[in-house]
Amino acid sequence: MLIVRPVEKKDLSDLLSLAKRAGVGLTTLPKDKKVLAEKIEASLSAFKNKPKLDQKAFYLLVLEDVEKKKIVGTSGIAVGVGIDKPFYTYRLLHITHENREMKKRVDTELLQISNDFVGATEISTLFLAPEYRKSAAGRLLAKARYLLIAAHRDRFSDTIISEIRGWIDDKGKSPFWEGVGRHFFDMDFEQADQINGQGNTQFIMDLMPHHPLYTCMLPASARDVIGRPHDSALPAVRLLEGEGFRYVGAVDIFDAGPTFEVHKELLWSVRKSIETSLGGVVDGVAASQEKMVANASLKAFKVVLGDVVETAGGYWVSSDIATALHVKKGDKIIFTPLHKPKEV
C-alpha cells in the first residue's frame, strides 16, 4: 500500500536519495542534507503550530511504500510566499507602440521583475521516483495536498500558486539562462539553481537586472522557452489545469518556467471533497482506488487510495483503509475523487 503522510525525521536519508535523482531545476528539493533537514524541521513545526497566514510555514508530505518501508516521492505546500524573503518572478507584459502618421503599429513583450505573490500559498516540491510513475502514485502524491487544504482551510491563503520547472535540454542547459541570467550572474545555471535552492535570494536582488527586458532583444532560443514547461513536467501541468490552475503570465527568473494560479475554493478536489464521520468499517481490502481518502487529523494526516461507500448508515470504508488511516467508526474522514470525469 502507498500512503501519503507528513515527513518525519527518519525520512531524511530517503529524501536525500530522491533529491539526488531529481536532476537540475527543482530548487525546492536541493541535494543538500543540511537544507533538507531544515525543511523537515520546518514541516514538523508547521504541523504542530497554530495557523498564522502572516508568517511563513512549510508542509512537506512524503509518499511511503509501506511494504518496502521506503519513501518514493514527496510534495509540499509553502504558506506565506515572499513574506520573509522576496519571491521573484518575471511578469510577461504586452506593449504596443503605434505611430498614426505612418500607420505603423508594433506589438512586443517585455519581462518585468516582480514580487507580487507575497502572502500566497505555493504548491511545490513534487517529485516521484521514476519507477512509480506508471501507476496512480503520481496523482495521489500531487492531489493529496488538496485534501490537506480542504481539511484545514484556515492554514492556507486564498491564492494558490505553483511554479513549474522550465525547459532545459538533455545536457542540463537552460536556453533562457544562457540568454539572460548568465550575463548578469556569471555562473552556470546549476550553480545558481543550487544557491537559490538553499534559500539565498539576496544574490538575486544584488545581481539581477531591475529594468524590463524586451523579449525581442533576446536570443530566439531564450524567447522560445519563455513559459515552456520542462518535458518531464507536462503530466504535472495537466494535473494543475484539471484542478483549475491557469498560467498567469509569470515565469521563473532562472529558467522561465510558468507559474500557475487558482483560488483555493476553486480547486476541483477541494470543491468535490466531502468531510464526514465514518459510518462503519467492513472487513477486507478496498476493491476500487477511485477516491483519495484521508483522516481529518493534522499531525497524523494520512491519505490513501481506496473507496468510500455511502449506505443508509453513513459512509463506510474497508478495514485496510481504516487501519492505514488509524480511524474507527465515528472518526472524521475526508475524501474526494481521484479523477475528474473526463480523466477516467
Briefly, what is this?
The chain has 344 residues and is of the alpha+beta class. The chain contains ten helices and 16 strands. The longest helix is centred in the N-terminal third of the chain and has 16 residues, at 33-48.
Describe this protein's structure.
- The chain has 344 residues and is α+β, with helices and mostly antiparallel strands.
- The protein has two domains: 2-89 and 115-268, Aminopeptidase; 274-343, Beta Barrel (Barwin-like endoglucanases), CATH 2.40.40.
- It is 27% helix and 31% strand.
- The chain contains ten helices and 16 strands.
- Strands 1-2-3-6-7-10-9-4-5-8 form a ten-stranded mixed beta sheet, sandwiched between helices. Strands 13-12-16-11-15-14 form a six-stranded mixed beta sheet.
- Strand 4 (89-99) and strand 5 (104-114) form a beta hairpin.
- Helix 1 (12-21) packs across helix 2.
- The two termini are 22 Å apart.
- The mean pLDDT is 90.
